[in-house]
Amino acid sequence: MTLISRFGPAPEQPGIGVSALLPDPRARSAVSLIGLAISLWITVDSLPAHPGAAALIALAAAGAGWLALATVATGRTALAAIAVTAAGGAVVGVADAKGLIFTGVAAGSAGVAFGITTALALAAIGPAVFALTALAQHQFPGQLFAVCTAALIGLVGGASRREITQRAAHSAEVAYQTRRAALAGQEAELAAERNRLARDLHDVLAHTLGALSIQLTVIDTLARKADVPDPLLTQIGRGTELVGSGLEEARQAVRALREDNTPLPAQLERLCTLHRADLKITGEVRGLGAQATLALYRVAQEALTNAAKHAPGAPVTVRLVHGPEEAALTVHNAAPDPGAPGPLHTSGGGFGLAGMRERVLQADGQCSTGPSEDGGWTVTARIPYRRRLR
């Protein structure tokens, strides 16, 4: 559990002294342990020949508290470790002034780890325990001034380090929020531009193709009245179908630009009906973005067009599988019968295999094409679902 003090939560592994300046927790712990070893060696070397059991127990407690701070102490555990280190160092300080190292380190760690109120209370533990111990041993005031000075220096140093860290964190947060605001503005500008392009596309293509469709209908009516040959009527009908298909393509492009797309299954049903392909959809239908929906539709459209061109009359199957993480579309056409007409040379939609792969890649997906074992051709596209920001 993290303590919330006046100026915010205690950080993980606050560090001690110089180690508090290190950003890497492992390096911070290593430097703290080296400092502990040096401090123990200095203190033990300077203790009197018979320091007494109380001083030795206090030194062990102070060392254990420092060790906990350097390795595992956070939150309430850090608070307890700092208190033990300060108290142990104060007791040792009555026997020898070198013990005040622990009191100063404890005060500095308190300044780094906690807000000013909690840190001040922890820093006062050292002088308070020192005064009580000195009174009990009839050595008051002794080194009380030195204890207070060590605690004060440690507290000021730790609090200064905490202030620097908090300012750096605040600056980073401000920079992050500023960047987010800039990105939001760019996204808004992009959305406005996409809407403008959608309007232009609708006005130019949809209106033009709509007018062309009307003209073809008039021509078809006049041709039938004039009793023209059937091949000409067939071509006029084909032209009308192409205009209608182009009009639907324009609408889909507008939907994609505005990110307002028709569900992919409905689009595939119309497309497969037009090409007389077998469609099967499995899995729970999930939401795909406009870009992903359009990319998968274009893959199916290009694959079906290529099948009609290069394997006319061969059966074609379209499979859309909604998996847990992605949508997978597979279009397979069998090899044409030996007696079937040769490949057609009518133009497709101008999309092409390269453009098909580019669309899928732009939607963070993968696309593969190649011959199948039965001599036919298989096209597969996989696109992951959109990730929602939390």
How would you portray this structure in words?
The chain is α+β, with helices and mostly antiparallel strands. 64% of the residues lie in helices and 10% in strands. The protein has 11 helices and 7 strands. The chain has helices at 25-46, 53-71, 75-95, 100-113, 116-123, 125-136, 144-225, 230-257, 264-275, 290-310, 352-362; strands at 4-5, 8-9, 278-282, 316-322, 326-333, 366-371, 377-384. The strands form 2 sheets. The chain has a 5-stranded mixed beta sheet, with helices on one face. Strand 1 (4-5) and strand 2 (8-9) form a beta hairpin. The two termini are 24 Å apart.
Most strands sheet: 5 strands, mixed
Oligomer: single chain
Shape: rod-shaped
Mean pLDDT, all residues: 80
Task: Quickly count the helices.
Answer: 11
Helical residues, percent: 55-70%
State which percent range the strand residues make up.
5-15%
Compact overview of the structure:
This protein is of the alpha+beta class. It has helices spanning 25-46, 53-71, 75-95, 100-113, 116-123, 125-136, 144-225, 230-257, 264-275, 290-310, 352-362; strands spanning 4-5, 8-9, 278-282, 316-322, 326-333, 366-371, 377-384. A five-stranded mixed beta sheet has the order 3-4-5-7-6, with helices on one face. Strands 1-2 form a two-stranded antiparallel ribbon.
SSE diagram, text form:
Layout: E1 4-5, E2 8-9, H1 25-46, H2 53-71, H3 75-95, H4 100-113, H5 116-123, H6 125-136, H7 144-225, H8 230-257, H9 264-275, E3 278-282, H10 290-310, E4 316-322, E5 326-333, H11 352-362, E6 366-371, E7 377-384
Parallel strand pairs: 3-4
Antiparallel strand pairs: 1-2, 4-5, 5-7, 6-7
Helix pairs in contact: 1-2, 2-3, 2-4, 3-4, 3-6, 4-5, 4-7, 5-7, 6-7, 7-8, 8-10, 9-10, 10-11
